[in-house]
Amino acid sequence: MELEPPEMPLIYCARGGFVETYLDVKERRRYMYRLNFRNLTQDRVDVSPGLYIIDVGLGTIPSMTFRIYRVLRATTVAFYTDSVPTSYLEFTKCTCAMQRLINYEPQGFEEIVYMVVSNGGGSVALVMDALLDSQVVKPYVDSIYESSDHNHVMIYRVVGVSPIR
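^ thats the sequence. predicted structure below, dont judge the formating
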């Protein structure tokens, strides 16, 4: 039996353990598929050093993209706002230090970002909801731009999936 082209990638993902198949008896015994994040072999993904501003949108696990997942897994420190549920960050099983943003002054935030990026070649994530947190995050991002060392810190924007956008 020859497979049609749309089915082939699913089979390869299932063989690699990235997709798991389960039988849903509520849906008339249909086979259902879901991503299996536990079998991702890229525990430590290399990303370019810098500050990653991650806009999670609604802040639910279904809104997470693979790029957000990869960035958070590679992050040294992840700052998050109060509108981001901690389960969103814990889902990635990140070994990074997770810190509430409001526990830091903008100057202290800037020093940590500079130290991690410039001295260690690592990355820092600022996880937020742009609709709710733009005014909260603004002084922190401005502190990076106004720093005399800002040319050493690249700033990247990563956006999640949101039905509102």
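The first helix runs from residue 8 to 15.
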